Amino acid sequence: MKKIIYSILILLTSITVVTAQTEKNFKSFYKDYKAEKSIIALSAPVSLANLFINRDEKELRKLIKKGKKVRILIFDETKSVIDDDIKSYLPEDKYQTFMSIKDNQSFIELLANDTTDYISEMIIFIHEKNSLVAIGIEGNFSYDDLKILTESFQSKS
């Protein structure tokens, strides 16, 4: 009987490990790329963003409080390989594009990983001529929060 129980436990443990290793999301993309020499990587609590937001932007400050962690990758030279790799980490069945803004030399894209009740992760890509900034924000956001963020982007572009 003990052998059966141990066998089941080993099987369940190995399934959990394999599942964790194959999960595709921005966090795993960040972990895989953060050690590259030509990439600047930053991981911090979202509340740190309050240092960079004007005091009069109260709605944006409320949004920040709902966030948990932000991960930022800055690529000096973008290659199509990186764009293809990003797409493999962010499958379309989990991440939806909520907004795209194209301006002369730059392109901003906002993706979200949502459930029926809330958005668990927002990804922001800022493509410029020879660079890419990828920002992943974890938290529990509503669709109204997403609207506040998109309005903030649109007013600044």
List strands and helices in order, with pairings.
Layout: H1 2-22, H2 26-33, E1 39-45, H3 58-65, E2 67-75, H4 80-89, E3 95-103, E4 106-114, E5 119-127, E6 132-141, H5 143-156
Antiparallel strand pairs: 1-2, 2-6, 3-4, 4-5, 5-6
What about the largest sheet?
Answer: 6 strands, antiparallel
Give the tally of β-strands.
6
Strand percentage lies at: 25-35%
Total domain count: 1
Low-confidence stretches: 4-21
Enumerate how many helices there are, as a single number. 5
Rounded average pLDDT: 77
Strand order in the sheet with the most strands: 1-2-6-5-4-3
What is the helix/strand order? HHEHEHEEEEH
Class by alpha and beta content: alpha+beta
Query: Which range best describes the helical content: under 10%, 10-25%, 25-40%, 40-55%, 55-70% or over 70%?
Result: 25-40%
Gyration radius, rounded:
18 Å
Shape: globular
Q: Could you give the distance between the termini?
A: 66 Å
